[in-house]
Amino acid sequence: MNIVVVGLQWGDEGKGKIIDYLSKDADYIVRFQGGNNAGHTVEVNGKKFIFHLIPSGILREGKICVIGNGVVIDPQVLIREISSLHKEKVKVSPENLKISLLSHIIMPYHKDLDALREKRRLNKIGTTRRGIGPCYVDKFSRCGIRLADLVNPKLFKEKLKDNLREKNPLFRRVFKAKGFSFKRIYEQYLKFGKILAPYAEDVVELLNFARIKKKSILFEGAQGAFLDVDFGTYPFVTSSNTIASFSGVGAGFPLLKIDKVIGVAKAYTTRVGEGPFPVEEKGRGGFSLRERGGEFGATTGRPRRCGWLDLVSLKRAAQLNGVDSLAITKIDVLSSLKKIKVCFKYKYKGKSLTNFPATSQGWEKIKPVYREVKGWPSLKPNIGSFKELPSEARDYIKMIEDYLGKKVEYISVGSVREAIIKK
Ligand code: GDP
Ligand code: IMO
Ligand code: MG
């Protein structure tokens, strides 16, 4: 069975936790877009791991983790991630980690450009400043450097020279910033290339072989539906397509060979960075959700903006991704609240909207309309089945199912691996 797992909100829905759980039944776990702007948390045996590039299935023995062509790779971050896993005695080797030769490499100038552009922009996006956007820009303007180039010193030299010929004047003249030394980058990145060369792979061939052998492939999305470069709250989005349809493109996998899409959503909503967020609770409410849920970015540590569950946007995300079922996380975070608010429609210029607006124009004027539902008492430890949940929590899940017309298949009730219910 080939399953795609994607975020249905603005990222940080708990995809890492769900992937870790589902990867017990998978043979391959594949990242297909994004880069180290992602931070996917998995808590196992008292240890907390935050994955930025390596798929969240790496903790399970005997699985093959794959980084597809749709991912942009900061080699320094990846090498650091591999060695910190080694320190925790987690096996990461060319046997269980394969990186597409076609994946694009984040260069120092991408990171600097990300920060410089952000500084100049009137309407800041609040990017992670990891060079993600500029790297994707170079990919599409056809001057990107791919893993296949990085591991070939002659080709790498040529491409880096060509890039600096264009980038250095841009940095100096437009941004009044320092340029980059060819020698420094070349020497540093050649070392990265040497370390990563054994992991480089023809992922198309690898996954095609897996498919023919009827292996199970799990595709791990990063970010979330409303950070999608086309369908999100543009321009306050990331620079890749985050929705399930992209999984095939970002890994070189045939479209019709995906069997199932699972959408992950928090029981409430969060967002990091700038941009419209209709259900945001700016005052004490938001503060309290942030404290309860530990809502601080897994990548940048920034406090996440928090609000109640937004069913209108969730429905749009479920449609966009064609989800077959849902995983709802952080149900425990809402426990012991007397009342819980849920947004079931928007108000815009005096009119009710139950559909998500087509573009993000006028978003700031959208007002959420809430319904209050009953909260539930603290959850018992080690809940193993749906019927053990308090009835109000079961009603909450049912309300989501009814609104979206989709079944909730997994309910996460804590951050650790075991705290999950299969309904
Ligand atoms: P991702 O980017 O979608 O993988 O999500 P993040 O890892 O950035 O953020 C999710 C956070 O919520 C992490 O700190 C997880 O450990 C935590 N988490 C995931 N599921 C649950 C849950 O059901 N309950 C609680 N309390 N925490 C959870
Ligand atoms: P995971 O996979 C939450 C946000 C940034 C910023 C915008 C653009 O952990 O869910 P970028 O650096 O991508 O150009 O920043 O996107 N963003 C995320 N927010 N979770 C993420 O990943 C994110 N990746 C990017 O905060 O608003
Ligand atoms: Mg995250």
Describe this structure in words.
The protein is of the alpha/beta class and 423 residues long. The protein has 12 helices and 20 strands. It folds into 3 domains: 2-99 and 199-262, Adenylosuccinate Synthetase, Chain A, domain 1, CATH 3.40.440.10; 104-196, Adenylosuccinate Synthetase, subunit A, domain 2 (Orthogonal Bundle), CATH 1.10.300; 265-422, Alpha-Beta Complex (Adenylosuccinate Synthetase, Chain A, domain 3). Helix content is 31%, strand content 21%. A hairpin with a 7-residue loop joins strand 19 and strand 20 (420-422). The chain is globular and about 65 Å long. 6-O-phosphoryl inosine monophosphate (IMO) binds at residues 7, 11-12, 37-40, 125-128, 130, 132-133, 222-224, 227, 238-239, 272-273, 298. The site of guanosine-5'-diphosphate (GDP) has 22 residues, from helix 1 and strand 3.
Helix content: 25-40%
**What's the overall average pLDDT, rounded?**
96
Assembly of the depicted chains: single chain
N-to-C CA distance: 19 Å
Radius of gyration from the alpha-carbon trace, in angstroms: 22 Å
Question: Which ions, cofactors or small ligands are bound in this entry?
Answer: guanosine-5'-diphosphate, 6-O-phosphoryl inosine monophosphate, magnesium ion
The CATH architecture of the largest domain is 3-Layer(aba) Sandwich
> What is the CATH H-level superfamily of the largest domain?
Adenylosuccinate Synthetase, subunit A, domain 1
Strand order of the largest sheet: 9-7-5-2-10-1-11-15-19-20
Summarize the main sheet. Answer: 10 strands, mixed
Shape: globular
Uncertain spans: none
Count every helix, treating DSSP H or I runs of 4 or more residues as helices.
12
Kindly identify the CATH topology of the largest domain.
Adenylosuccinate Synthetase, Chain A, domain 1
Proportion of strand residues:
15-25%
How many domain regions?
3
User: Structural class given helices, strands, pairing?
Assistant: alpha/beta
Please count the beta strands (DSSP E, at least 2 residues each). Answer: 20
CATH class of the largest domain: Alpha Beta
